UniProtKB/TrEMBL annotation:
This is Octanoyltransferase. Pathway: Protein modification; protein lipoylation via endogenous pathway; protein N(6)-(lipoyl)lysine from octanoyl-[acyl-carrier-protein]: step 1/2. Signal peptide: none annotated. The gene is lipB. It comes from the Bacteria. One of its GO terms (molecular function) is lipoyl(octanoyl) transferase activity. Catalyzes the transfer of endogenously produced octanoic acid from octanoyl-acyl-carrier-protein onto the lipoyl domains of lipoate-dependent enzymes. Lipoyl-ACP can also act as a substrate although octanoyl-ACP is likely to be the physiological substrate. CDD domains: LipB. It comes from Flammeovirga agarivorans. NCBIfam families: lipB, PRK14345.1. SUPFAM superfamilies: Class II aaRS and biotin synthetases.
């Protein structure tokens, strides 16, 4: 007996949370979905009804932290341990794809923890829809953004501009079509922290933020609301909210 696709997605605003704690929480939700899928395989073999898998969308703001993906190079972190301590920045080697990036205050970090069997089983499409949600959000603020061939994430000045600059980094992990990690949109982020790394392993392109592009501070909660709506529309999610304290 086949389960109907479950497009219900529980949205949680985690507020300001240390990276390690958020990673542990993501992993807990991710593992729960994977375990449900393994149980459903056993249920299917027994001819029993399967259990709908859950989906989550987490928004969070992290204290200063650098994260290095499994394909990244540690030399792209330009600080030693003393430098990290001086700048009050944490450092984690993690299990997402991609190289090194920065998370910190003024940045919206989104972690979709989805069973793609509920939506579509296509990682390329998944990444492009995450990018599209950010592109549409930026467009609502009058910021023209897009993609650069061969580079993941969202860029400003992507078409022949002599100074292309990344405004949203992305890096994901998937297993059994379940996703974790996600994207980081620079809204009011302090761009100086990107000077301590080779962002995403790309040395010849700059990083920017909505604040820098617009010349003014931007309302984070408003951006979150707009971004959440675009994600919901593009993925045809049935979002419902669960506020975490």
């Amino acid at each position: 007996m086949k389960v109907v696709m479950n497009k219900k997605v529980e949205f949680q605003d985690l507020g300001n949370m240390p990276y390690g704690k958020a990673w542990d929480y993501q992993t807990e939700l991710f593992d729960g979905i994977v375990q449900t899928k393994l149980e459903n395989r056993r249920r299917k073999d027994r001819g029993e009804e399967e259990i709908p898998t859950k989906n989550y969308l987490l928004f969070v703001e992290h204290p200063h932290v650098y994260t290095l993906g499994k394909s990244g190079k540690e030399e792209h972190l330009l600080l030693d341990q003393k430098g990290l301590e001086r700048e009050h920045v944490e450092f984690f080697k993690i299990n997402r794809g991609g190289d090194i990036t920065y998370h910190g205050p003024g940045q919206i970090v989104g972690y979709p923890i989805l069973d793609l069997d509920n939506f579509f089983t296509d990682i390329h499409k998944y990444l492009r829809l995450l990018e599209e949600a950010v592109i549409l959000t930026l467009g609502d603020y009058g910021i023209k953004a897009g993609r650069i061939d061969g580079l993941t994430g969202v860029w400003i000045g992507e078409n022949g501009d002599p100074n292309p600059r990344k405004i949203c980094a992305m890096g994901v992990k998937t297993s059994r079509w379940v996703t974790m990690h996600g994207f980081a949109l620079n809204v009011n982020a302090n761009l100086n922290y990107f000077g301590n790394i080779v962002p995403c392993g790309i040395s010849d392109k700059a990083v920017t933020s909505m604040q820098f592009e617009l010349g003014k501070e931007v309302d984070m909660q408003e951006v979150e609301k707009v971004l959440k709506q675009h994600l919901s529309n593009l993925f045809e999610m049935e979002l419902f909210e669960n506020q975490q304290n």
